Amino acid sequence: MTRFFVIFSLISLISACSTGFSNKENCDHRDWFEVGRQDGSKGAQSDQFRNHVKSCKMIKKETVSLYKTGRNAGLAIYCQPQNAYELGKLNQAYHHVCPKALEEDFLASYKKGKTTYQKERSFKNNTTNKVVK
Asked: Residues 6 or more apart from 71 whose CB is under 8 A from it?
């Protein structure tokens, strides 16, 4: 039993060490521009970067810059009026991530989408109530 415990402990220790090294390696070799671009295109808030680097032992200044540049590129896609309308129509939350230059048009379309959502919801509720009675 003691022998099993010692072997199990050694295997666990080796696994833990190898996981730590691979996390750092993954951080160094990730395409941080692309990570930021994907986050931006989903409307992720700026604190999402912290979630990505929690497991990193160290990040380079360049990493932050690449991520921010990529996120801004993604936000340029996310903050388009067509996307805003769809988000509103689907009743999705908006977390005020769009740059000021894009936000006015974004919000106007988002509000139109929300209005469409509310009208469709009201229509469905009225239709359902009439069928039930």
From this structure: 36, 37, 39, 40, 44, 46, 49
